[in-house]
Amino acid sequence: MSMNLGPLFEPFEVKSLKLANRVAMAPMTRNFSPGNVPNDDVVAYYKRRAEGGVGLIITEGTTVNHPAANGYENVPFFHGEKALAGWKKVVDAVHEAGGKIFPQLWHVGAVRKEGMEPDPSVPGYAPSGMNRPGKVVCKVMTKEDIQDVVRAFADAAADAKAIGFDGVEVHGAHGYLIDQFFWEGTNQRDDEYGGSMANRQRFAIEIIKAIREKVGPDFPIMLRFSQWKMQDYDAKLCQTPEELEAFLKPLADAGVDIFHASTRRFWEPEFEGSNLNLAGWVKKLTGLPTMSVGSVGLTEDFIAGTFASKKEAVEDAGIDELIERMNNDEFDLIAVGRALLQDPEWLVKVKEGRADDVEPFRKASLGELY
Ligand SMILES: Cc1cc2nc3c(=O)[nH]c(=O)nc-3n(C[C@H](O)[C@H](O)[C@H](O)COP(=O)(O)O)c2cc1C
Predict the structure, then answer these.
(1) How many A from CA of 336 to the centre of ligand 1?
(2) Which residues span the membrane (predicted)?
């Protein structure tokens, strides 16, 4: 393990957000909010990570106020008095522990199946009714549906600001609704929301602009996006740096302050001919603050598990390479998921050189982690 952890522990500022260090907790769905309300256990869970010293917590995906936003049981909502009161307790606890926190605002799109909470009769909604290319499984969104969801994201961001969150992350990654619009595989519309990338990203741009309108100029908006989809790890929205630049610029112009480039392994080069990872390219192309993510602090065993296809070779996820990339100014912030899920004190232990004390992540233990 590197002795020079310098870049991890430098402060970072963007707009009204002042972070004590460069490490964020990645958003991780937990299904531990019965009645879709974050309860005191949820408060304690986030508080523990804030006490463990992470600069920023990004909450688990929390759903905006649309009948089809939710896709899983016991996921916390981000609307309604009870759920927002629960989130306010989370915010206050994290702030008391010296941390900062963004909610991850989420609509699952076609991942939703009938039978799901809150109204089992509501199907999934998606740009072309597809969760995977070519197979219509749910409702094709009308323009009115699109505007309803845009408004729901904006309202959620306004509520986030009102109850004291430090910014918002919009979940535009991994094959959920916003990404279903981005990805031509699941967006086969022939109106202004489909076709070219400029059209496919119109939905996200409208969401970002509507949020900005509600939260004002200083409240940070982060957009999480990914090339990979749950439905297809090898999918790519952008095949070249030129395509990536064309994708990012209108989103930045719409009001994105931080791009969170979701990759499964932070050390993997994104395009041939350069060692830069996806976040590195985003920073190079936009100049905006950028967050990377993917298998930080994991041992080989579980890199090969969740988020890996079996045929892929497993490489070293050492922290040295992370430090080197941050020293090179490749990206500004790093999100850590499973390592922090397993061990709330992960960052303290890394800082104190007690890597041997870190509890290794076991996929089997996911349900037991608080
Ligand atoms: C249990 C679990 C739940 C997750 N839920 C979400 C989620 O709600 N939203 C999201 O954007 N990513 C989610 N992810 C992906 C993580 O945010 C992260 O990108 C991924 O785990 C890779 O980071 P890591 O290797 O540090 O764990 C989840 C990952 C795990 C393991």
Answers:
(1) 9
(2) none
Query: Is the CB–ligand 1 distance for residue 171 below 6 Å?
Result: yes
Q: How buried is 243 (Cβ within 10 angstroms: 0-12 exposed, 13-18 middle, 19+ buried)?
A: middle
The ligand 1 atom at the shortest distance from the C-alpha of residue 298 is 25
Domain that holds residue 49: 6-368
Whether residue 1 is contained in a domain is answered as: no
Concerning whether 46 is annotated as a catalytic residue, the answer is: no
Beta strand pairing status for 290-293 and 258-262?
A: parallel
The answer to whether residue 57 sits within a structural domain is yes
Q: 35 in a domain, yes or no?
A: yes
Backbone region of residue 334 per phi and psi (left: phi > 0; alpha: psi in -120 to 50; beta: other values)? beta
CATH number of residue 45's parent domain: 3.20.20.70
Residue owning the nearest CA to atom 28 of ligand 1: 28
- Which tens digits make up the pLDDT trace of 323-345? 999 999 999 999 999 999 989 99
3-state secondary structure 19-61: ECCCEEECCCCCCCCHHHCCCHHHHHHHHHHHHCCCCEEEEEE
CA pair distance 5, 7, nearest whole angstrom? 6
> Does residue 361 sit within a domain?
yes
User: Would you say 21 and 326 are in contact if contact means Cβ atoms under 8 Å apart?
Assistant: no
Judged by average pLDDT, the poorest of 160-174, 305-319, 331-345 is 305-319
In this structure, the number of other CB atoms found within 10 A of the CB of residue 234 comes to 8
